């Protein structure tokens, strides 16, 4: 049976991270349930353009209406290998940390935590407030993984695309679906 992952996209800046995660997941043959917030589509169109946004949706196996709290990904009985939220806004982080489950994205993330499945949040904000740090700590204590989209400068990336591709590969690697995709430090 084909492995399945939930990819959540919040309205935070960093839409290229979502597209690169989707491309990596498609490349390794993982089925993707796409869940977006109200502002995510706007941010994707603004940062990537309509063609890339269309590619993102085309690569998804299932696209869920972000307001449909009855979607399959809102239930722990729906078998997935984990979830990535790329990018993850501080609003979504706060909702996940506090168990609000008030959107399909935050509900699907909460399901991953309660089912003890991997949840990887590419938290996008700088600088961070104490509230942000506490929410990150709370999610980490519940078993989630906070993966700020920080470049691996030691790899000497030559473009923004190289940076986002590497960060997305690290996010996918955190799900432990197969051999690592991200370039590794060679010493």
Short description:
This protein is an alpha/beta fold. The chain contains 7 helices and 6 strands; from the N terminus they run E-H-E-H-H-E-E-H-H-E-H-E-H.
Q: What's the SSE blueprint?
A:
Layout: E1 4-9, H1 15-27, E2 31-36, H2 40-48, H3 50-59, E3 62-64, E4 83-88, H4 90-97, H5 104-114, E5 119-123, H6 130-141, E6 145-146, H7 160-173
Parallel strand pairs: 1-2, 1-4, 2-3, 4-5, 5-6
Helix pairs in contact: 1-3, 1-7, 2-3, 4-5, 4-6
InterPro entries: Flavin_trans-like (IPR036551), Flavoprotein (IPR003382), UbiX-like (IPR004507)
Organism: Roseinatronobacter bogoriensis subsp. barguzinensis
Keywords: Flavoprotein, FMN, Prenyltransferase, Transferase
Number of helices, counting only DSSP H or I runs of 4 residues or more: 7
Per the CATH scheme, the topology name is Rossmann fold
User: How far is the first residue's CA from the last residue's CA?
Assistant: 38 Å
Task: Identify the CATH class.
Answer: Alpha Beta
Strand portion: 5-15%
Question: What helical percentage do the residues reach?
Answer: 40-55%
Kindly state the number of beta strands.
6
Report the major sheet.
6 strands, parallel
In CATH, the homologous superfamily goes by the name: Flavin prenyltransferase-like
- Model regions low in confidence, pLDDT < 50 over at least 5 residues: none
- Calculate the mean pLDDT score and round it: 96
> Helix and strand string, N-terminal first?
EHEHHEEHHEHEH
CATH architecture: 3-Layer(aba) Sandwich
Tally the structural domains.
1
How are the strands ordered across the major sheet? 3-2-1-4-5-6
Structural classification: alpha/beta
Q: What is the general shape?
A: globular
Determine Rg (CA atoms, Å). Answer: 15 Å
EC number: 2.5.1.129
Protein name: Flavin prenyltransferase UbiX
Organism: Roseinatronobacter bogoriensis subsp. barguzinensis
Pfam families: Flavoprotein
